[in-house]
Records
---
Amino acid sequence: MPENTNRSLAKLDNNQILALIDSMPNLKEEDKQDLQLQIMSDNLELRKKAMSKLIQSQQAQADISGVMGQILEAPKKGVYINSKQTAETGSGKVEIEVKGGDTKFIVPVLTIIAIAALVVLFIVFG
Amino acid sequence: MSWVYRSYYKEREIDHGSIFDYNQFILQEFFNCDNETWYRLASHYRSVHGNRSLSYLERKFSEWKNGNYHLTDLMEERILDVMPNFLSKDARNKLIIRDELIRIREEERKYKLGLDEFLRTIKRIVQSNQLKRSSYQKVNSISTFEAFVETIRDELDKIKNIDIEDLSLYYNTDEERKEILNIAKYVLKIKLQSTYKHLKNDIELVSPYFKKNEFDRFKISYKASFGIHDIKFSNTELKEVKFPTFDLRNIISNNKYNEFAEKYLANELKDIFYKRNDNVVDGFLTTTDINIFLSKYLELKKNQDCEVKMNGEFNGEIGILTMSAQYIPPKFLDVEINKKRFAAGLKILIPTLILIWIGESDSWNLLIGLWFITIPVGFGIYSSIKEDFDTITELKNKKKYYA
């Protein structure tokens, strides 16, 4: 687990609640034990949840890297790209939209479309 | 013909260790009394109810005892009235034990009702005073650290000032009323402390990203809600701030419901701390994910052939951080400008040609007749052309900036 992740999970505080329960003089010993067990079990559940989030985040990072590889390769291959990718991370989502690549075909294509449109308009209204 | 209920005496086994039937016990003592008791009882009975009544009692005694003849209400009432004065010592002790059992049961009943009222009132106070939002309350918008800290202070003061003097408690004393209030206030303060900690952690985490940046179009905002308060920081530079501490002293309960009060409190605290940790898990990857977002953006930006647009939404411990960045490479700007010019040109040319055609065919009446279509369409085309020209200006400025 990365170091900063460990640091974040250190905020999971069970000592305070355990100390509070322990300091209650009128609480039966069996009730204390029962509560302590529940707290430990909850803590395990939360760590499991944290792990799955971490895996999700790493998966998202890998997915984005994969897509980025393709995007960065596109101009070298001389193709125009228009890509939109959403990745669910551990704490939310990242959406990447990339447009671009080789632009040398765009101007001629636009010119041809413009001429074609003008011809059509001339036939219709002329 | 009317139905008349007739009661017959019947000997029954009585559990003297429980709260037995008093009338049955007295009647049994009466029908089973020894001779000496009987003589004394008869003498007393005669003096109270007369000879005739005693004769009737003596005559029917055996029949009643054996359950062969119904015992009238009047006679049962007289026996129950007289017999307690002639009970044996053993029978009296049994009645004393019975009375004690009744007293204990009554105390238990009152204790249970009191405990129920005690815990129910705590829950009610917590529920009605905790941070919550209702549709009829005006939302309070917060956009500065100072306002946020002040709001938390106000909420804490509200908790401190909660009063339940007007609340009717039937089974709890004034001392217990104070205890109820203390426990409820403690739970509310712990809950407020949780909210404060989450928001503080979130703000400390996102603040470094709220700085003037070199990104072309970079938008950032943080939103969180607690109670009627909405906290929102948007596209601003957040300076480092020191948050005041929010510590609480442990509560000491001292009342006859100690065990249950502490059990309730322990469970309530367990749930609050679980929620606290759950929120920490929700936000523990925020920094990692924001860093992924920024590093990938910068990596894509290096590729001068692509326009990059990225949106990110990240959950903090309690709020949501949204970021968006857009980069258009200078090389791509020319194409974008030409595309927009082309689109604007078409949007001007087509309506112009249509107007020429209408003029030539003298169809102005048709155009005016269809005003409900032509006017909105005209406005639509006009705003679209204006938008294209605005974008062209913006892209030209950007081009100059990169140059």
---
Amino acid sequence: MNEKLLFLIPLLPLAAGVLNALFGRRLPRALVAGLAVGGVALATLSTVVFWPLAAGEGTRATLYTWMASDNLRVPVAILFDPLAASMSLMVTFVSTLIHLYAVGYMAEEGGNARFFALLNLFVFAMLTIVLADNLLLLFLGWEGVGFCSYALIGFWFREEKNALAGRKAFLVTRAGDVFFGIAMLWLFAATGTLSISGINQAASALPPDTLFWLTLLLLTGACGKSAQLPLMTWLPDAMAGPTPVSALIHAATMVTAGVYLLGRLFPLVSLSPAGMATIAAVGALTAIYAASCALAQREIKRVLAYSTMSQVGYMFLAVGVGAVGGAMFHLYVHAFFKALLFMGAGCVIHLTGGENDIHRMGGLGRRSPLVFWSFLAGALCLAGAPLTGGFFSKDAILLAAFVAGGLYFKILWGIAATTALLTAVYTFRLLYLVFAGAPRTAGASHRLPAAMTWTLPPLALLGVFGGLFNLPTAWGGDGALGEFLGPLAGEQVHASHALEWGLAGLATGLFLVGWLAARWRYASYRGERPSPAKTFFLHGWQADRLVDVLLVRPFRVLADFFWQWVDRKGIDGFLEGGGASLMRLGGALRRLTTGRVHSYLAGFAWGLIAILAWMLAGFIE
Amino acid sequence: MAAILFYILAATALGATLMCITRRNPVHAVIYLVNAFFALALIFYILGAPLVAAWEVIIYAGAIMVLFLFIIMMLELAPTETPRGPGWRRWGPVVVLSSVLLGCTVALILADPGGGAAIPTYYASPREFGYALFHEYALAVQVVSFQLLFAAVGAYYVGRSGPGAMETAEDREGSP
Amino acid sequence: MIVPMSHILIFSGIMFFLGFACVLAQRNLIMILIGVEVMLNAVGVTLAGASALWQQVDGQIFVIFLMAMTSAEVSISLAVVVYLSRRKKTIEADAFSEMNG
């Protein structure tokens, strides 16, 4: 097969998106939806068809050279290796299901063409990130997902809070992108190339200091897109967008782009032990921060947003200890069950007639069993119920952290284990408050479109049985994903089967404790009891206020200073002052022309004095 | 003898001029000026210009000063009580200014070494004068006569009143 | 022998500046014109003295031209003074200051 056909994978959604953007308004709804779904579905098909090309070292394909100047070469090139192939398959498949779901979700909304065009463009940008062989091309996709995310979060922009949420997301991720940009420039200066394979090869020649700072810069860029500390304030607010957007962008794809970047540049990043330790610490701390906040949230989607933040923290932790295979495993399984949970949340919101607050829901288990069972499957995966996909993937990460060596990583493992407990608690809290008990609102019961309900079970199955993708040898499996990724899976995790069993038992114990605690507290609804602690966690440890005080207010003061003092008084004052003083000078000079003859005659007299004085002076010398 | 006469006449002329310029009543000033012109005419004669002396009296004192008097009388600018002239507030700075100028001029004059020698006597007879006038300066004479014609026409036009006169701003404001 | 040229020049200089002072100090338009006459006459004396110094008649010829020009100038100036007095009913020089500013 011609390897240039690999470009079909990103270009098919792009084509569908462009067609919808240009002509979608004049086309019937069904055609718009069909184009959108068709674009991504064909991309999925292409990925499957081209799967053999990914084996071993992968395939490289170049379409044309985008930029070439001096020794900078930026070809539009694809690197289709196992990492890219598996990621693109996950992205396209989940996108297809979510597009189908969105057809049902947006059936009664306006702006159809814009929505589907942006969704397709987003998939194109994400696939560019996944498949790019060149950092600049990856950055193109990086910025593309940022823009599409902004446009989609603020999709219902006529409500100001939605537009503000979109803007916040854009600005915070952009702040991370600045660091990524600096890293790119530095990498080019240090290695002379922007090609990912080239950089990975040249990485071993760089001095350790450079490697550490580069890792830190790349980490900050990844934190922006993946909503990790300290650039995480945008993700909870991003839930203002439509649910398919939350499911696709903020569960499965964009937030994992950071992990993927670090995975792609792992040969570079792994050479800096301090950098890896920082990555792991960021991941673990974000995980526990987000889990603590999820415990106090009231809106169903915000619980899931913080949950996403927490789980992506796990992935960062895995990358930090060297287990890229484990991180990718968790990434895929998480994508399945988190997208499922978001889609289920969308169904729940639909069922309650637009209600978002879980304290006002209840008893939905009886109203739609399909939604309930799918949601339950996803929730069990999230909480790490034994033998689900989530259990195996989380366990792999915990094991890798435990055996990473040193007190430092043991502490991080402890934090991660505590987070697992908290995860179980908030997951079951969500389940009990939404589905169990008696309904707390008499909401009108909306009929759910088939597209919304029947896209849930496939994801549920993938989530529950996802463990089979990478079953560890201790359980009788062969670690298929790890084998497939080969050297791209990072460092091998060497642990005895006894240790694995022990940690698995511990994880099961944490799951049970969390479930029982949630059941004791939330199974029968006792009403809300607000407290300062709950408010603190509800507002994300007041992170927004911290950012406001540290960054926004000084910036406003500075901007005000430049506006009032430098621009108004300084520049305008200078110009106007110059003009005014010239006018005053003119006014003063005008007083010389009195219109009276005697003044002019006096002028004659003075002139005559001057001339005579000059002549005298000439004579005296 | 001529030298002494010159000094006496110079003093007279200067005194009369001084009186002239400090008068408040224009008629008095004109009379004093006529006095000064007579002295000047004699000075011209001493300097050897008898024709110029005659013309000084005929044209200057006889025509120009009389014209001044005519206009003053016509404009009724010499009321029975003397009008207020400029006081020391106006004269003070002018005196200072003029003295400074005069001082500079005198210094310049005295700085010239050639000015100390006395002028030899000279006498230009009318015949000599006329010959030079119409021989070398004939063109200038023609130009001057044109000039006098223009002046006459201009003075007639400016001074006209009644229909065909120059429009004043007040006339313009009155008419619609 | 008559007086040295410097004496004539000093005499005409004093007369000239007397006329100049009259022009500067007096507020009456007529008095200004009289000052101008004085100045012109002073110049005439200088010219006649110079003619005697150089023993030529040209200086005196210039005096006659001077007188001719003066008479032309006086007639027009007095016609203008008449016109102005008809306009403003006064001949104070300060009254005619429309060209100020």
